[in-house]
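Journal club prep — side note

Before the paper discussion, L.F. wants everyone to see what a predicted structure for a comparable chain looks like in token form. Sequence:
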Amino acid sequence: MLEYKNDKWKALLALGPTLVLMAIFTFYPIFNTFFTSFMEGYTFNVWYDTRYAIGWLEHFGETIVRTEYDAAGNIIGETSTFVGLGIGNFVRLFKDGTFIKALKNTAIIVIVSVPISVIIALLISVALNGIGKLQGFFQTVYFLPYVTNTIALGLVFSVMFASRSGLVNSLLVSLGMEPVAWISSLGTNNNPTYASALFVLTLYTIWNGLAFKILVFLSGLQSIDKQYYQAAQIDNASRWRVFSKVTVPLLSPMIAYITITSFIGSFKTYTHVISVFNGRYGPASDPNMLITVVGYIYDALAQMSAMGKLAQASAAALVLFVIILLITLVQLWVNKKKVHY
């Protein structure tokens, strides 16, 4: 029998630096976000009337009243916030129309973009795997978006779908059609609609995500044993039958991986939106038209000096985490029956 030396301390020494970094930059932020989401009235600084107070524990169990004044020094209102533990952050979160809008936009982006991008990437991969001399060239073309900056790609799409000077509208005009207000207004009463803005964003999201999916699918296709296709050819099976009965089942582990990672990535959509809409979450006529959950979290963090905003951002992050976790678990459960290893 082979005898193994007890090298646990060596393994710990090798993994130690990585574990320390993960503890500081991964595990601690997760646990801190979880606890902060239940801390009502939490912020770095608390204003109590005109006195400056520091520390959430110092005012634990109190109701902080903040008096608001106008420029002349007159009292214009008061706001009260309970400082303590509870689910108030989540209650306020789901009463916030902006968060509900962000949740709806994120869900639509995920439901529309993920299935379409996976199907298109799979079809392109199958087509690329079947060509000969120019395969390397087309692989490079489709891989370019993966090595290009996301913001730069978004700016390209922003220019393409701009007002009358954009490439798409110029093409429509040259064909005798009316220009469309895709992501910018064409006049006072011709502003971009939700459908047009969502179409551009979805198109960009699909295009930006194709490269990695194609790369994974191609590597999977090239690892499939050719004898399966030879057997199907002997049986005179049609191309569709070969694709549905041979290629897809044997490629199912890659399809499952791509689908899960695509869902996770789409739920965290943020840079796609601000790059297409020049730093906004929508066209100038409605800057929050396509705000996402991650965008909502960033906006709340930008106001962390306001009482409760940091805790509200943590609550939104926890809700997003739970949604992603549940969908991933459902996908893993489905994949147990559908994936063939």
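L.F.'s comment for the group: The first helix runs from residue 8 to 36. Keep this in mind when we get to the figures.
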